[in-house]
């Protein structure tokens, strides 16, 4: 824990992807930076996304041209910065003329191929939906469609990698630490912070306070007495996971009768991720879990296309998140802008910048924009830099991903290649640090199931701020998905005793 009374230039409230990106960028510019989050880093919205790095093809229907262009350009940057974590993915949209005319889809894809500048991914194409190809698992009457490129990511790990980089550049990072109050005092913020576990309170000060609290953004403005008057719209998005619903490495983007789209995405080798819903909610209590109505909505959406329909009993996992969107007055949740808004309150020399909205894909550009807005109040030792420095573990050419993985497999010949592949996807070149001197499965310690071993669990605690069993099971890794209920319970029991012994 930081020493009470320590002074910073910048205090970030919220350790989701936007806060992590801001902390990384600021720390790398020589700004004395601290970040706090009342829960686990990336524990809310930023680990409950559709897990895509994408331009947002459907946003074109709402004329969000700037957002799509920026997202497509950022897709290229993130593919380069984290080649172990972000991978290209081909999407297929079956043609249903009654929902959207062919000319509209072709025009949209033509724009999508060109709006972000030069792309390293293949362009769009008209495709035949063959049962052993792009039509795998679909009803036979669906014979024609369109394909295009985007990318997928482990969203929770993207947050962690940004925070590891921020720490490497000198940032102070405190999970499970909440903002109690903050007040302006002689041109600075005096913030009262509280350790959630112990209740211990301490004070820190900063010239600038960043409100990156996501769904809690209004709570923070209330705590600080901000003059910002913008409202936030809480839009719940839920997902379900089922055993692999079709063969092939491609994803589907399925048109729905309500003009929304639903994705089916290959997930963790043996599963299919289906999402998402869009429902405006009044309070965060309404977003603790998926509702049966949402589950049925998603199943109905994909069953219109699947040859073998899915049932509620097929769902092996579900999760719900809340998008803290800027209230632009749109009634339809799907039409509310996903673009970010940055609102500055600079009264009395103590500056607060509040972040509304944003997408996983544009987090880095958002952070860069935040630092540009704060230039009058902060001193930078370097210019914008995050576009060029890879995230931890990603220090290799994306074209060499397979070669780097094979090199690591050759270095650990006694470890199963599927395990090494999963570890590489999580850690990249840091895999060697995670494994240390281990050369055999026995060296990795206790096997908890789901591809999780004691050595990696201890690494998550020592180097990635894991303080609860779920931090590891569902965010640092996705081992919980592949475990049985008994294995998850055994790990939770072990973790509690491990933490108790270490404290």
Annotation, overall tally of beta strands: 20
* CATH secondary-structure class of the largest domain: Alpha Beta
Report how far apart the termini are: 14 Å
Determine the CATH topology of the largest domain: D-Amino Acid Oxidase, Chain A, domain 2
Number of helices in the DSSP assignment: 14
- Quaternary state of this entry equals single chain
Give the CATH H-level superfamily of the largest domain.
Answer: D-Amino Acid Oxidase, subunit A, domain 2
**What is the overall silhouette?**
globular
Helix content: 25-40%
Q: Strand percentage, roughly?
A: 15-25%
Give the number of domains: 3
Low-confidence stretches: none
Structural class: alpha+beta
Please describe the biggest sheet, giving its number of strands, its sense, and whether it closes into a barrel: 10 strands, mixed
Instruction: Give the integer mean of the pLDDT values.
Output: 95
Give the second-level CATH assignment, the architecture of the largest domain: 2-Layer Sandwich
Radius of gyration: 23 Å
Walk me through the structure.
- The chain has 503 residues and is α+β, with helices and mostly antiparallel strands.
- It has three domains: 7-45 and 157-231 and 338-373, FAD/NAD(P)-binding domain (3-Layer(bba) Sandwich), CATH 3.50.50; 87-151 and 233-329, 2-Layer Sandwich (D-Amino Acid Oxidase, Chain A, domain 2), CATH 3.30.9.10; 398-502, Helicase, Ruva Protein, domain 3.
- Helix content is 31%, strand content 25%.
- The chain has 14 helices and 20 strands.
- It has helices at residues 17-28, 65-81, 102-114, 155-168, 217-224, 292-303, 363-373, 401-411, 417-427, 431-435, 454-463, 469-476, 479-482, 485-502; strands spanning 7-13, 33-36, 52-53, 86-94, 125-128, 144-153, 172-174, 177-185, 188-195, 201-211, 232-243, 251-255, 261-267, 271-275, 279-281, 317-326, 341-345, 351-356, 447-449, 452-453.
- Strands 3, 4, 5, 6, 11, 12, 13, 14, 15 and 16 form a ten-stranded mixed β-sheet that branches.
- Helix 1 (17-28) packs parallel to helix 4 (155-168) and helix 1 (17-28) crosses helix 7.
- The radius of gyration is 23 Å and the shape is globular.
- The mean pLDDT is 95.
């Amino acid at each position: 824990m930081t020493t009470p009374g320590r002074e910073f230039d910048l205090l970030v409230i919220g350790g989701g992807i936007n806060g992590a990106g801001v902390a990384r960028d600021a720390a790398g510019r020589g700004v004395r930076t601290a970040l706090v989050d009342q829960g686990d880093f990336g524990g809310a919205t930023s680990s409950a996304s559709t897990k895509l790095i994408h331009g947002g093809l459907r946003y074109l229907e709402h004329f969000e041209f700037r957002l799509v262009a920026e997202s497509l350009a950022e897709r290229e940057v993130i593919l380069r910065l984290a080649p172990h974590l972000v991978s290209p993915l081909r999407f297929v949209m079956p043609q249903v003329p009654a929902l959207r005319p062919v000319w509209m889809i072709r025009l949209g894809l033509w724009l999508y191929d060109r709006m972000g500048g030069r792309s390293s991914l293949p362009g769009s194409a008209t495709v035949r939906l063959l049962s052993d190809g792009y039509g795998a698992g679909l009803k036979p009457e669906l014979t024609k469609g369109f394909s295009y490129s985007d990318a997928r990511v482990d969203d929770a790990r993207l947050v962690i990698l940004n925070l590891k980089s921020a720490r490497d550049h000198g940032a102070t990072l405190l999970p499970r630490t909440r903002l109690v109050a903050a007040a302006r005092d002689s041109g600075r913020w005096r913030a009262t912070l509280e350790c959630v576990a112990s209740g211990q309170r301490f004070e820190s000060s900063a010239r600038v306070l960043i409100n990156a609290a996501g769904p809690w953004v209004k709570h923070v403005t209330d705590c600080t007495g901000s003059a910002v008057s913008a409202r936030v719209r809480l839009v719940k998005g839920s997902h379900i996971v089922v055993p692999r619903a079709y063969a092939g490495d491609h994803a589907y983007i399925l048109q729905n009768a309500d003009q929304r789209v639903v994705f089916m995405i290959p997930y963790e080798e043996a599963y299919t991720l289906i999402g998402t819903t869009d429902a405006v909610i009044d309070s965060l209590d309404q977003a603790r879990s998926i509702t049966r109505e949402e589950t049925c909505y998603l199943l109905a959406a994909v069953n219109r296309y699947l040859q073998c329909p899915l049932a509620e009993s097929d769902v092996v996992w579900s999760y719900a998140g809340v998008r803290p969107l800027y209230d632009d007055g749109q009634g339809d949740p799907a039409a509310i802008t996903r673009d970010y808004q940055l609102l500055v309150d600079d009264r009395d020399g103590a500056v607060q910048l509040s972040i509304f909205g944003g997408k996983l894909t544009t987090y880095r550009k958002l952070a860069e924009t935040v630092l540009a807005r704060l230039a009058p109040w902060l001193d930078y030792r370097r210019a914008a830099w995050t576009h060029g420095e890879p995230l931890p573990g990603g220090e290799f050419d994306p074209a060499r991903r397979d070669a780097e993985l094979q090199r690591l497999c050759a270095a650990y010949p006694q470890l199963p290649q599927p395990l090494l592949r999963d570890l590489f996807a999580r850690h990249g070149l840091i895999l060697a640090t995670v494994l240390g001197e281990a050369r055999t499965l026995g060296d990795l310690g206790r096997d908890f199931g789901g591809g999780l071993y004691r050595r990696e669990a201890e690494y998550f605690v020592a180097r990635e701020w894991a303080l609860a069993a779920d931090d590891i099971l569902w965010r640092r890794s996705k081992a919980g998905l592949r475990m049985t209920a008994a294995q998850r319970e055994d790990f939770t029991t072990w973790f509690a005793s491990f933490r108790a012994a270490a404290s």
